Amino acid sequence: EEEEEDGDVPSSDIYENWTNEKVNPYKVSIKDLLDLQLDSLMSKYVHPLDSNGKVTSNFGPRRRRFHYGIDLKVYVGQDIYAAFDGKIRVTGFDPRGYGNYVVIRHSNGLETLYGHLSEIKVEANQDVKAGDLVGLGGSTGRSTGPHLHFEFRYLGNAINPTNIVDYETNKPLNDSYLINKNTSFREIKAYQSAKYHVVRRGDTLSGIAHRYGTTVTKICQLNGIKRTDTLRPKRRLRYS
Question: What is the spatial distance between Cα 55 and Cα 37, in angstroms, rounded to a whole number?
């Protein structure tokens, strides 16, 4: 039984069961989440890297998928540490995504994920303290170079790590953080409500913009393209 930290709700009150399967076995939608105030464990946060790993990719939408964490540059074999006290819920290998990964459940209700490891140094059901070694940096799975993919999740729903940690100082932004379904998941909700147009032969950006009541500038911003780019048939263009 997990003990309650001052100011936090113990994770045993949040999660109905313990499972060593899947990164997200919960399937709880954002609209069904209850607010959660994170207090005591915030001051005990330990950055997963000794050195100040440069942020190489931020949380948010990519061209055809969503990036649910933040990428930090590492070298192969670099020590990776647990961010908070907790228990290893699952370790595994995802060849098309995380590669070697570790998920830790923490007593404040958060789970953290560490991906693309070259080696895993812990086992499922193992208790860990903040700062304990959990794995070694690598480039396994869907990766173009060595980096740590690092996530914060609440009942399976990813939270932008930059809402919680300042990656210039590698310290929590505040002594507490309120997980709120209306504010903490804005990027994901926007991504889930996004609308797309499938490009057909002869389509133009101005024509697509006129059709959906938007602007060429907005379409370019949403898709990371330029006005002069060639529109290839069957490409999905986000317009909202």
Answer: 27
